[in-house]
Amino acid sequence: MSQSPTQASQHPWLQALDNYRDWRLLYVFLLGCSSGFPFVLIGSNLSGWLTDSGISRSQVGLLGAVFVVYAINFMWAPLVDRVRLPLVCKLLGHRRGWIFTLQALMLLATIFLANTDPLTHLGLLAALCLAIATCSATHDIAIDAYRIEIIGKDSHRVPAASAMSIIGWWTGYSLPGYLAFANAEAVGWSGVYGWMAVFVGVLMVFTLLVREPETDRQALQQEAELRYAGMLHTRPEKGIWSRILVWLSVTIVEPFADFFRRNGWQLALAILLFVFLFKIGEAFLGRMSIVFYREVGFSNEQIAHYSKLVGWGLTILFTLVGSTINIRYGIVRGLFIGGVAMAASNLMFAWIALVGPHEWLFLATIVVDNFCAAFSTVAFVSLLTWLTGKAFSGAQYALLASLGNLGRTSMSSGSGYLVDALNGNWAFFFVLTAVMVIPGLVLLIFIGRKMTQGSQD
């Protein structure tokens, strides 16, 4: 006998899939596209452009240091939570106002970048990339806070929102990246960056289409101001300097104090170290992947088709699968499985290094790598979301995300030097990237036990 709709809806897997019937997830997807696109400008496209221009592997790796701003954006993240930009925030709302303004600045930088020759003006090119990275890292603070505020802390909606954010990120990264590599030889990289500016304009339209979240953020921040006024033995009505002191204390201190207060020092430090270490191996691989593809013998067209277009489709599919599994079995367990799989997938690249540029192996590697990356990333983003508070969601998520970016960018910027030190032994390089995940998995076991103990107490 077939199940009735009511009975079917009680099935755990159908309940997990039902969480995607929420229009707010469309907003999360659109802003996710905006978050992923700048990585095309200063990531894969830049690596391809520099490689084709004859820039050395070491310099390509060093230019990846501009991503360090993603690791330190927590330093100004409290300002994104607290400061309302004149006029634009009044017209669009707090979160959308910040996002739209920073997209406009990225549009200007992209136009200048399109007219810069890396061989003669490498320093200027690096400065423009740094400007784009800074704007992108700042508007990511607002985008992440937007997602947290528009969805809330519903245990089933959080993985679904994380999945849609990731799908949006990869859509904003892979589709333009595919078009760039597919047309780079026809129009040249300067031409590619010229029409990349058009994409930024499309992203600005996306920002105008989404709805501003309704939150009690301001009320919670005002409560914190009253609490700090008591701690500092002052009253805001006493004068301008008292108000400034209280405002700065709440803006700078409270987001981080609240995180440690809610989790305890031991668990909080373990979480921070885990976030720092978890994706270092993936970052080493990602930073050198385009260089590896070209050196091993794959063409720009093959890279565009498999790494960008096929990889994008697989990421969407596997992200949905991964989020459903995380809803069903839990975030910590999903992270551990994803971490082990992520390390194993790096060995597929070592296989390519040993046997050469076979398209069937390239496709198999893309399938495995995208499954593992999507699965672990959904759980990772969901965990960070769960750890944020309501009053300072932007600053606290930025603190956690920036630590992950610090591990990925500060260490992976030397990935080119590591390949050179290994005399171009790509197979051994990818084996080392697989081993890098082990410390993070050990910490995850400790965190899982502490969180279980905390829930039982």
From TrEMBL:
Its main location: membrane. It comes from the Bacteria. It is a multi-pass membrane protein. It holds the Pfam family MFS_1. It is found in: Membrane. Gene3D superfamilies: MFS general substrate transporter like domains (1.20.1250.20). Keywords: Membrane, Transmembrane, Transmembrane helix, Transport. The chain crosses the membrane at residues 25-46, 58-76, 97-116, 122-146, 158-180, 192-210, 263-285, 306-325, 331-354, 361-387, 426-447. This is MFS transporter.
